[in-house]
Write a structure and sequence with these properties.
The model has no long low-confidence stretch (mean pLDDT 97). The longest helix has 10 residues. The strands form six sheets. This protein has a 28-stranded parallel β-sheet that branches. The chain folds into three domains: 70 residues, Immunoglobulins (Immunoglobulin-like, Sandwich), CATH 2.60.40.10; 215 residues, Single-stranded right-handed beta-helix, Pectin lyase-like (Pectate Lyase C-like), CATH 2.160.20; 208 residues, no CATH class. The protein contains three helices and 43 strands. By secondary structure, the chain is mainly beta.
């Protein structure tokens, strides 16, 4: 069956309901009101350039009798950014024209960017508006880093004394350069394609000094926003993380493509941090770091706000060349709960599922209720990596507290990993290990269920460190390594081309086969 995911005033997104990862059963043709408009082969597809407040009838060549009827939304008004003086030539600065146009939009209005390149410094969005990037339109970030103002990490209300958060980097409330597209404390924002948002970092110095004292800008940053929908755009070449919703609610990323070179530093595709109700559906990623990294801040922020990353759905996505396809952490001190990853393809990422935590993340750092189902991995070096010894991104990363294999006391700094289920997966051309899960001796992982999974190893596999921890050694063609887990369920697992035992289990309380 075909279902409607999203309809705006001029775009719509649809999804095939089946059990297939990312790709549909065959190539198909889409007809709108009887006219051919699109040929596709993926489970999710989109239409653009639709008329507002208009009813449409959609059919496909897969099943001509399966008709979807939908009606586009109505705009209060539609404005062309060129009418505010934008040049769209990629040479002259369009920041003032774009920001003025946004400031002037009435509630429920849409601002259209026709085909062209719009060279701009950071622009700030407001509530109840739609931004449409037409075919051939590109918002292009300035290469001059001085044009990106510094946003304070937080300030204090001059009357009440309450803390007000503004800037962030890697789980801490710290100053940052303003992101190219930026919204704070706003709601009901829609950004639709099929145009492009290009950070242009490949032509600037952002990637040359990734450890600069002021955090690099993101491409799109939403701080404490509600009801945000990003549909059909191409996002690429951000200075750092590409799309970063932060302490926000009800955020949808639908049928978008996100690109950055493999060697670009920290160019994660989508990093939802301490958000609730996030949907990432039908998206395509090829980036220089994690494709999706679900976060909930470090211990200082988590102790104040106690906000987990909750109710996230990732479905029908293609993830390529990142360090991890779907990563949890390492900044997860507020916890990650109720995550479903379904019908995705991971291709040539270092790891498939990548959980990163360690001592010091804190008592609210609870990851629980994680389901991976109907996943196809191709050339993923280590398909499943659960690591409670992660040794990056903190000043004490090399301390004995982080690396000691002794059973330390459980206290307010100790994280917790609960239930993880992996089922109906095919993982081909693995290299390092099929599965590498390493819990803490004082707080083992509660349960891992592996069901109906087929692993095969590449004939020319090379040694690789399966998880990032102190004193880690590269491995090659290792089966399933499980350490410090309370309950392990292993059913209908096949492993081909590995060396040694299928299962290496240490400090596992109960094994169910």
């Amino acid at each position: 069956m075909l279902k409607t995911l999203f309809v705006s005033s001029s775009s719509a997104c649809f999804e095939w309901e089946n059990e297939l990862p990312y790709y549909a059963e065959r190539q198909y043709t889409v007809y709108l009101n009887g006219e051919q408009v699109l040929t596709a082969d993926t489970n999710v597809f989109s239409l653009f350039g639709l008329a507002p407040d208009t009813e449409y009838r959609l059919t496909t060549s897969i099943n001509n009798e399966d008709t979807v009827t939908f009606k586009t939304k109505k705009d209060t008004c539609v404005i062309n950014v060129l009418d505010f003086g934008a040049n769209a030539d990629g040479l002259n600065d369009d920041t003032l024209a774009i920001q003025t146009a946004i400031n002037c939009l009435p509630r429920g209005a849409k601002l259209i960017f026709p085909s062209g390149q719009y060279l701009t410094s950071p622009i700030c969005l407001k509530s109840h508006i739609t931004i449409e990037l037409a075919e051939g339109a590109s918002i292009l970030g300035h290469t001059d880093t001085a044009r990106y103002p510094v946003i304070p990490g937080h300030l204090y209300d001059m009357v009440s004394g309450d803390l007000v958060e503004f800037g962030s980097w890697e789980g801490n409330s710290v100053p940052m350069h303003q992101s190219l597209i930026f919204a704070e404390y706003a709601e009901d924002i829609t950004i639709i394609g099929p145009g492009t948002v290009d950070g242009n970092a490949q032509n600037s110095i952002w990637w040359q000094n990734p450890k600069a004292p002021i955090a690099r800008p993101r491409l799109l940053f939403f701080n404490r926003c509600k009801n945000v929908r990003v549909h059909g755009i191409v996002a690429q070449n951000s200075a750092s993380w590409q799309l970063h919703p932060y302490y926000s609610q009800n955020i949808d990323f639908l049928d978008i493509s996100i690109f950055a070179p493999k060697n670009s530093p920290n160019t994660d595709a989508i990093d939802p941090e301490a958000c609730d109700l996030v949907k990432i559906i039908g998206c395509k990623f090829s980036v220089g770091d994690d494709c999706i990294a679900i976060k909930s801040s470090k211990i200082d922020m988590a102790s104040i706000y106690k906000t987990p990353a909750n109710r996230h759905t990732i479905r029908n996505c293609l993830m390529q060349f990142g360090h991890g396809a779907v990563t949890l952490g390492s900044e997860m001190s507020g916890g990650v709960t109720n995550l479903t990853v379904n019908r995705c393809v991971f291709r040539k990422t270092d790891r498939g599922l990548r959980i990163k935590t360690r001592r010091g993340r804190g008592k609210y750092a609870i990851i629980d209720g994680v389901l991976f189902e109907n996943i196809k991995m191709e050339g993923v070096i280590t398909p499943i990596a659960i690591n409670m010894w992660y040794n990056c991104c903190d000043p004490d990363r090399f301390s004995e507290y982080v690396w000691s294999r002794e059973r330390l006391p459980v206290d307010d700094r100790t994280p917790y990993l609960g239930d993880f289920t992996f089922k109906n997966m095919v993982c081909t051309d693995c290299e390092a290990a099929a599965c590498y899960c390493d819990g803490l001796p004082e707080r083992p992982i509660k349960s891992i269920t592996l069901d109906n999974i087929h692993f095969t190893f590449s004939n020319d596999a090379k040694p690789f460190v399966p998880i990032m921890q102190n004193f880690a050694e590269p491995v090659c063609k290792m089966g399933m390594y499980i350490d410090n887990v309370e309950t392990l369920t292993v059913t209908n697992i096949t492993i081909e081309g590995h060396e040694g035992d299928d299962l290496i289990a240490k400090n596992v309380g109960k094994i169910i086969k």
